[in-house]
Write a structure and sequence with these properties.
The chain is an alpha+beta fold. The protein has seven domains: 2-130, Rossmann fold; 139-186 and 454-559, Topoisomerase I, domain 2; 190-255 and 380-449, Topoisomerase I, domain 3 (Distorted Sandwich), CATH 2.70.20; 262-374, Topoisomerase I, domain 4 (Orthogonal Bundle); 579-638, no CATH class; 645-689, no CATH class; 698-753, no CATH class. It contains 20 helices and 28 strands. The strands form eight sheets. A six-stranded antiparallel beta barrel has the order 9-10-14-13-12-15. It has a four-stranded parallel sheet with strand order 2-1-7-8, sandwiched between helices. The protein has a four-stranded antiparallel sheet with strand order 21-22-23-24, covered by helices on one side. It is globular, with a radius of gyration of 32 Å.
């Protein structure tokens, strides 16, 4: 018997059907081993030696693998064909070797980029060794993330600055904060436009003023209303005559967009389907595991020769030969370190016989299908006509452009969206010749103001990270979800990112004391170094030393900084953001207001505390306040609520050393899930009596790696959570089964254990 190890249970089922009898296919369910979550698990003094442990919840899965291995003659390690997949294969091999289970077994590493019978059988016929360069790149990446986490995170926790700092996530947050600072500093500039409604042969069209009194008019030339009035008065009566003085006709072609990479798929799914990066990758993962698309983590835009031949054949049969270009369209991969052996994301077959899909998978598959077909179709063709129209008195020249699509080409199937509001609508002009008369029936004028740069969406932030060379296909979705989950950014109704107070605070701290670490060039260079390790161009230990030496210097220096200096730095960084009118005087005593830090979050407080106890909450979305003079009644209303609240009947709500609690003078009971605004006398009585009502758990389904049920608890000591096989994970809302399985199987030990004494 042959044993094959893949990453996911659904993939295992699909492949086992292809291989038939004589094969057993088992899933590792992602990574099975990780660094021991303790300080010192990466020994920087001894060539960065790393200490590993089996991840919680993976023991039974490994036992299943070892039990099946005893019956097998050979083992095929078939984890995903990328850096993380190579690492999973290496970890499993290392574990089995240490258990001395491979002495009489043949071991093969196989990789395939699509889950089709042809691809799987081809991989089995062409096995290889584990790529040590890819594994070394993973080890460098994992060590760097660990060293940053254990080096910087304690500094953040100790001073209530944030939950964590990451090598890439911190750069993403900084980009969002920097964009917000640009928006806040932006000063709108007024400008005007003047257009003419024209009539030729009873066909109306609009033209824009491009020349006045012999001077060229561009977007910002007309600065104010007096200038508009002068222009209108000199042109004359709105119903005036004009003449065509120049016409330019040309043929224009438009090329189709390249097939999807991971980042462009996430961007387009966000624009067209309003999917988050995480939602896109979840749907793509299911399509890949079902054998419907190629591997969804790639930065290459090339397609296999077989796929191109299939696509061209499909286009010819479906749309006709005129939609098939004479030669296949070739797309150059823009990513510097793209792995050209990989393909772009495409359907695995083009016979229209795909499985019945629904929901997110159906929508995403349709997007991938159309983009892939369109990328091998002929160009779209347009007739473009531009006309210059001069007024009878020679004072002004207006310019009109008309575009008419003459051949659909790829646009018969698919048109790419953009992040900008480009007007791609087609405008047809009437038949005209030089010397023809034009009647100007109306002069239009409109006031405009320059607009600040747009806030990032997930799509535009992923695009920016890719342009800067930060992050890789396997990390974009994780970056987006991490900065939201850790409450460093939040999204508005238009899905645009706003930095939270926490995002502002941690960015101001890192910008001052870890500037190099969150510098985009430094981070991009680190990504390039990881790629160099993957390609065998730099040795693992050298790469780690080059990174760790300057980082350790920054961490050591930051430990000595006094908290008061840090708060002053944060206040300087955030002053214009917090006090938009520059009024930072306390309305109670006239002292200076500034940001204060606590374990419950940042807030505005007075410098004269405790003599003055004025505080001001920060708004969640923009975290701004407008400190201004208050009358007596407003001042009374703005006084902070006391932390301790008398609820009546001798019961009170208090804030103690270990957090909120309720007491009746004899008995103290924790009340961590409540604040002085949400606690009531009835809740306090229930807590003190020990009979707080708990909602019944909801069964979500079974975990395939442990065969244990997963339950959702809407209430708990720390809020909602899921539980399975004595593994608990806090959640914000009820997850679907697959998300719950991933959370349970990848649960790491509590941070409280990170620094336990030995």
């Amino acid at each position: 018997m042959n044993l094959m190890i893949v990453e996911s249970p659904s993939k295992a089922k699909t492949i086992e059907k292809y291989l038939g009898s004589g094969w057993r296919v088992i899933a590792s369910v992602g990574h099975v081993r990780d660094l021991v979550p303790e300080n010192g698990s990466v020994d920087t003094e001894h060539d960065f030696k790393m200490r590993w442990q089996i991840m919680p919840g993976k023991e039974k899965q490994l036992k299943l693998i070892t039990d099946e291995l005893k019956k097998a003659d050979a083992i095929y390690l078939a984890s995903d064909p990328d850096r993380e997949g190579e690492a999973i294969a290496w970890h499993i091999l290392d574990i089995l070797t240490s258990k001395k289970l491979l002495s009489d077994k043949r071991v093969y590493r196989v990789a395939f980029h699509e889950i089709t019978k042809k691809a799987v059988l081809s991989a089995i016929e062409n096995p290889r060794e584990i790529d040590t360069n890819l594994v070394d790149a993973y080890l460098v990446r994992r060590a760097l993330d660990y060293l940053i986490g254990f080096g910087i995170s304690p500094l953040l926790w100790r001073r209530n600055l944030g939950k964590s700092a990451g090598r890439v996530q911190s750069v993403a947050v900084k980009l969002v904060v920097d964009r917000e600072r640009e928006i806040e500093a932006f000063k709108p500039v007024e400008y005007w436009s003047v257009d003419a409604m024209c009539d030729v042969s009873n066909t109306n069209f609009k033209s824009a003023l491009t020349k006045f009194d012999g001077k060229k008019i561009d977007k910002m030339s007309i600065e104010n209303k007096p200038m508009v009035d002068d222009i209108l008065s000199k042109i004359g009566n709105p119903v005036i005559s004009a003449t065509i003085v120049n016409i330019e006709r040309k043929k224009v072609t438009r090329h189709s967009a390249a097939p999807f990479t991971t980042s462009t798929l996430q961007q387009e799914a966000a624009r067209k389907l309003y999917f988050s990066s995480k939602r896109t990758m979840s749907a793509a993962q299911k399509l890949y595991e079902a054998g419907l698309i190629t591997y969804m983590r790639t930065d290459a835009t090339n397609l296999s020769a077989d796929a191109v031949a299939e696509i061209r054949n499909y286009i010819g049969k479906t749309y006709g030969d005129k939609f098939v270009p004479s030669k296949p369209n070739i797309y150059v991969t823009k990513s510097k370190n793209a792995q050209e052996a990989h393909e772009a994301i495409r359907p695995t077959h083009f016979d229209g016989d795909e499985k019945k899909l629904s929901g997110d998978e159906a929508k995403l598959y349709d997007l991938i299908w159309k983009r892939t077909i369109a990328c091998q179709m002929t160009n779209a063709e347009f007739d473009s006509v531009a006309a210059d129209i001069e007024t009878e008195n020679k004072v002004a020249v207006f310019h009109a452009v008309g575009t008419t699509r003459t051949f659909d080409g790829f646009m018969r199937v698919y048109i790419e969206d953009t992040d900008d509001d480009n007007d791609d609508s087609e405008t047809k002009l009437p038949q005209m010749s030089v010397g023809d008369l034009v009647k100007i029936t109306e002069l239009l004028h409109e006031q405009h103001f320059t607009q600040p740069p747009a806030r990032y969406t997930e799509a535009s932030l992923v695009k920016k990270l890719e342009e800067l060379g930060i992050g890789r296909p396997s990390t974009y979705a994780t970056i987006m979800s991490t900065i939201v989950d850790r409450n460093y950014v939040e999204q508005d109704k238009q899905h645009r990112f706003h930095p939270t107070t926490g995002g502002w605070v941690i960015t101001s701290y890192l910008d001052k004391y870890f500037n190099e670490l969150i510098d985009v060039n430094f981070t991009a260079k680190t990504e390039d170094t990881l790629d160099d390790v993957s390609n065998g161009n730099i040795e693992k230990i050298k790469a780690l030393k080059e990174f760790w030496t300057p980082t350790k210097t920054m961490i050591d220096g930051a430990r000595e900084i006094k908290t008061t200096e840090i708060i002053n730095q944060i206040n300087t960084f955030m002053h214009e953001h917090l006090f938009v009118d520059n009024n930072d005087k306390c309305p109670l005593c006239g002292g200076k207001l500034g940001i204060k830090l606590s374990k419950f979050g940042a807030f505005i407080g007075c410098e004269n505390y405790p003599k003055c106890n004025y505080t001001q909450k920060l708004e969640s979305e923009s975290s701004k306040i407008k400190a201004q003079s208050l009358n007596d009644e407003e001042t009374e209303n703005k006084k902070p609520q006391l932390s301790n609240v008398d609820l009546g009947d001798g019961i009170s709500f208090r804030i103690g050393k270990f957090g909120p609690y309720v007491t009746d003078g004899h008995k103290n009971v924790p009340a961590k899930q409540y604040t002085n605004q949400t606690i009531t006398i009835d809740i306090a009585r229930e807590l003190l009596s020990g009979i707080v009502k708990k909602a019944e758990p909801e069964k979500l389904g079974k975990n395939p790696s442990t065969n244990a049920e997963i339950y959702y608890y809407p209430t708990g000591r720390y809020g909602a959570y899921i539980s399975s096989n004595r593994v608990n994970v806090s959640v914000k809302e009820k997850p679907d089964l697959q998300t719950a399985i991933d959370l349970i199987n990848n649960k790491k030990p509590s941070a409280k254990k990170f620094f336990r004494r030995k």
